[in-house]
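B., you asked whether I could sanity-check this one before it goes into the benchmark set. Here's the sequence:
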Amino acid sequence: MSDLPSLVAKVYNFPLGRSLNDICVAIVELGGGVSLSDIYSFCAKNGYLNPEIHIDCVGGAVPVLSGPTGADGEVMLDIEIIAAVAQGVKILIVFAPNTDAGFAQGIKAARTHSLKPCTISISWGAPISSWSDSGIKSMSQEILQAKLAKILTTVASGDNGSKDGTNAAVVDFPSSDPNSLACGGTRLTLDDKGNKLNETSWDLAQGNGSSGGGYTDLFVKPDYQKNISVSSGRCSPDVAGNADPVTGYPVIVDGVPITIGGTSAVAPLYAALCAIITSRLGQPVDNWHEILYSDQSVTVDVIGGGNGDYQCVEGYDLVTGLGTIDGEKLLQSLADSNGIKVLDPVPAKQNPPVPVLHISLWQKLLALWNQQFGRKPSFAKKHVTKA
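And here's what the prediction gave me:
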């Protein structure tokens, strides 16, 4: 189904937006490049409104197309899911160096940008055991500052099960930061009309990856998880969404139609929901975690399967967290808890594509050099999270 992102949003009861033309979603990327023609082709193929694309580069990072099986797949998946679900929204793509310091710099650039994003989507991460103490501290500080600015940070929980590609149970970071909305993975099956047939966890036993999840004592258990008895520390994920590559998302990457899965799809999915909710409330709110954990009506439990060390059971678990989000019910609960009236939905208007790039002259010259000689971006492996 070529329009799967919008079908998944419908299954998860996402509300209609109130013209998203003035709402911004930020994405932090640590590699790959952007094909504007692919974005507009994807939208035209599925009947979506075009997003307004803004590209910012920090720390000397330069977006360089690397092919559909490289980091471009990560980047375009993020963009095209947001474009499909939050139609007409402004999308700010921040490219940063693939280092601890670069990662933190990317988040800072996103949260302080003049477009004032309501949410930051992050599909990159690594086992928390591979991070330095200083790296964790600087990242946590930036995510906290985003929280204080009422910017929701949605982060993929990882695609390699409870061990996250290591030899022991470990959570992914920065998804496990207490101020991140950690996004795990499910396997959602639909009938030929787009109706839900079944949903279980993205199960490690299937042999194609699995939802990351677990707990860490590096962070004191946040107050919103006080009733979760699994651990004395931060438990992850918080919520989940369709991620199994078998039920993945058809996107266009470097001119090639390709289906991609992973929790990398769930972070932008819920970032798009945040944009819709922000438009309907007329302002951002900062109590997503508190409402998700205190109001059982806003999530739909997922049962069945596991990610290695943990099983997906009734109630909260370390595979799919609280389950999937019911967008309409979350909207109303957030409105009630903040004393805000929900505004009526208003269709977004079709804006012409307006790509805005903030790249210095030397970065442009370097990009031209890379395009001429086919240079590929170098990745610090520990920061790559994709299907």
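One thing to flag: The chain has one domain: 4-383. Otherwise nothing jumped out at me.
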